[in-house]
Write a structure and sequence with these properties.
about 220 residues; alpha+beta; Alpha-Beta Plaits; 2 domains; four-stranded antiparallel sheet; disordered N terminus
């Protein structure tokens, strides 16, 4: 009988009992985290990584939201800037196109004698005046209205859900508020010029703005 080859004579590996678990197939090293068959350590690592990823995503979303808001906001007054006003006006006209009963009033405002304030009392006094004007306009409008500083001493309002007659009455109140609450550094009342135009779903943004500006210039000329 021929001798058994070396390969044939090597005893077969003993089967691993199921109760030994996956540790029988997992190399173990001192000082290195060991993964048990139930995967508890790995699951914990996944949860930590997932929480960290969610925290990072929320932080990035907050940062993007803050950047978007700052891009639409006037830094000095906290009002909407020209870009924010344009975005709000587009939304208003889109809503008016969807609803035949939706209307509103655009108001353009500039201050009388503002440049003389800066020349006589300086930039800081001018900035304080603009912040006071912003506060007066906020107090004279509703939460759903848009108040914007377009540039320099030029402001704009979007009075939503309001017809032209009601808008004119609101402007009269704002003009009185300027006379009562706003004063020049020497104590005389700070005045403003107003121009307005109503808008509906059929209105063109440029046409509404042009009408409001023409009325603003007319108001300014009448008080010279």
């Amino acid at each position: 009988m021929s001798a058994l080859s070396k390969e044939q004579s090597t005893p077969a590996p003993r089967p691993v009992a199921l109760s030994q678990g996956w540790n029988a197939y997992t190399p173990s090293h001192e000082g290195v985290g060991r993964v048990d068959f139930d995967g508890s350590d790995t699951t914990m690592d996944y949860r930590i990584a997932l929480n960290q990823a969610e925290t990072l995503i929320r932080a990035q979303e907050d940062r993007i939201r803050n950047l978007e808001e700052s891009a639409l906001t006037d830094e000095l007054t906290g009002l909407a800037n020209r870009r924010g006003f344009s975005a709000a006006f587009k939304r208003e006209l889109a809503m008016a196109r969807r609803d035949a009963d939706y209307d509103g009033v655009l108001v353009m405002i500039d201050l009388k004698g503002f440049q003389s304030i800066i020349k006589m009392w300086g930039q800081k006094t001018g900035e304080a005046t603009l912040r006071a004007v912003a506060e007066t306009l906020r107090n004279g409008t509703r939460a759903n209205d848009t108040v914007a500083r377009l540039e320099g001493d030029k402001f704009a309002l979007l009075l939503t859900h309001m017809d032209e007659v009601t808008g004119v009455k609101r402007l009269a109140k704002l003009e009185k508020a300027f006379g009562r609450k706003m004063t020049m550094p020497e104590g005389s009342p700070l005045r403003a010029n107003f121009g307005f135009a109503a808008y509906t779903g059929t209105s063109s943004a440029n046409a509404v703005i042009q009408t409001a500006e023409l009325r603003l210039y007319a108001h300014k000329s009448s008080h010279k």
